[in-house]
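Before the break, one more example. Copy the sequence into your notebook; we will annotate it together after we see the structure.
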Amino acid sequence: MNLQRAQEIATSPVLADVLYNGTPIYIQHVDENKGTARIYSLDEPENEQEVALANLIEQ
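Here is what the structure looks like once it is written out:
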């Protein structure tokens, strides 16, 4: 996923259909300097992680 799109999704009030390793996730924050996003699985919101934007796929 590109940086600009990830930032749009993170700031949008509408939940986008984004996957990380095949799991639906929510993007909390995008770090443009590192090219990463702070995410959590919709099934496990307590399990936050920082991942590379390249590993996120919008359906």
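Residues 3-11 form the longest helix (9 residues). The chain has one domain: 3-58. Try to locate both features in your own notes.
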